[in-house]
């Protein structure tokens, strides 16, 4: 796998040397070496605006593009509420100017909301540590990968539909040598064991649902209500920010066979600042 990553980095150089690209580390970038060193290639090959966003780490940083404030988070470094990344995230969110950048979009590698069997609840610990902070400051959209399929969620917070929660989107289907993920955790006989899906770094916090149709269960018996659309297909997505309240998200299938009908999912994502404006006068408490 390490050799394949080196080849990929080489193939990317003609593009990344000319076109700005913001990246975040995933599990394949861990690359543990002799002496316990991790992420050597990632840190050597990608320049990110860490210092510019007052971060002391290339694993988490932020930047503005147009009317969007992008936040990139590290799932394979300390994300606990007592850690440096969490403290940085809180300060970054407090300082967002929602007039200059009305939209706030976050991204990290493994999804928190995922109805596929693969990587199911794998990063539940990270969700429990950080979700409340993102919700309090009204992050609008979250992009993740890791699961080799496509899935878009309804607005959700703590596994409950919430009109002020982010729209979570998993786009881990750009292409890989490990094939596409097909099985859903709600398919008959496909619910993982709570001993499955252990993250490479971090703890295990698998839970049974405490409310709703799946109360008391580890998996749903049907597509979860927070899962709006899912498809096992290679693809890519485009986010078009139209104005301060409307953005158009379109997911396209990559297979040549679809040709002009490649569009698989499309939705207008609408901000409601009058309903969901963050209360910056109230500092978020970890106990909320």
Question: Could you explain how this protein is built, in words?
Answer:
The chain is an alpha/beta fold and 288 residues long. The chain has 2 domains: 1-47, no CATH class; 50-234, Purple Acid Phosphatase, chain A, domain 2 (4-Layer Sandwich), CATH 3.60.21. The protein is built from 5 helices and 12 strands. The protein has helices at residues 2-16, 40-45, 84-94, 124-136, 273-276; strands spanning 61-65, 68-72, 103-107, 141-144, 150-153, 156-157, 160-161, 167-171, 227-231, 235-241, 246-253, 263-270. The strands form 3 sheets. It has a 7-stranded mixed beta sheet, with no helix packed on it. The longest helix is centred in the first third of the chain and has 15 residues, at 2-16. The chain starts with a helix and ends in a 12-residue tail after the last helix.
Helix-strand layout with pairing:
Layout lengths: L1 H15 L23 H6 L15 E5 L2 E5 L11 H11 L8 E5 L16 H13 L4 E4 L5 E4 L2 E2 L2 E2 L5 E5 L55 E5 L3 E7 L4 E8 L9 E8 L2 H4 L12
Parallel strand pairs: 2-3, 3-4, 4-8
Antiparallel strand pairs: 1-2, 5-8, 5-9, 6-7, 10-11, 11-12
InterPro entries: Calcineurin-like_PHP, Metallo-depent_PP-like, MPP_PAP, PAPs-like, PAPs_C
Protein name: Purple acid phosphatase 15
Keywords: Glycoprotein, Signal
């Amino acid at each position: 796998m390490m050799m394949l990553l080196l080849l990929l980095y080489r193939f990317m150089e003609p593009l990344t040397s000319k076109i700005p690209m913001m990246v975040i580390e995933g599990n394949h970038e861990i690359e543990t070496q002799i002496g316990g060193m991790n992420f050597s290639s990632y840190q050597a090959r990608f320049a990110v605006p860490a210092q510019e966003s007052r971060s002391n780490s290339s694993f988490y940083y932020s930047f503005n593009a147009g009317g969007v404030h992008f936040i990139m988070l590290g799932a394979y470094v300390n994300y606990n509420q007592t850690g440096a990344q969490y403290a940085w995230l809180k300060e970054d969110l407090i300082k967002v100017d929602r007039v200059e950048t009305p939209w706030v979009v976050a991204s990290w590698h493994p999804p928190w909301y995922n109805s596929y069997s693969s990587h199911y609840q794998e990063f539940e610990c990270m969700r429990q540590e950080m979700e409340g902070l993102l919700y309090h400051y009204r992050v609008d959209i979250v992009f993740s990968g890791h699961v080799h399929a496509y899935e878009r969620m309804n607005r959700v917070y703590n596994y409950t539909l919430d009109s002020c929660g982010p729209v979570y989107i998993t786009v881990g289907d750009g292409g890989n040598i490990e094939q596409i993920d097909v099985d859903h955790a709600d398919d008959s006989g496909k619910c993982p064991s709570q001993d499955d899906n252990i993250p490479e770094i971090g703890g295990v916090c698998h839970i049974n649902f405490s409310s709703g149709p799946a109360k008391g269960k580890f998996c749903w018996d049907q597509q979860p209500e927070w899962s709006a659309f899912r498809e096992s297909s290679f693809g890519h997505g485009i986010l078009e920010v139209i104005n301060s309240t409307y953005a158009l998200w379109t997911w396209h299938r990559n297979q040549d066979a679809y040709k002009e009908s490649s569009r698989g999912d499309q939705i207008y994502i609408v901000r409601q600042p009058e309903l969901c404006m963050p209360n910056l006068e109230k500092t978020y408490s970890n106990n909320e």
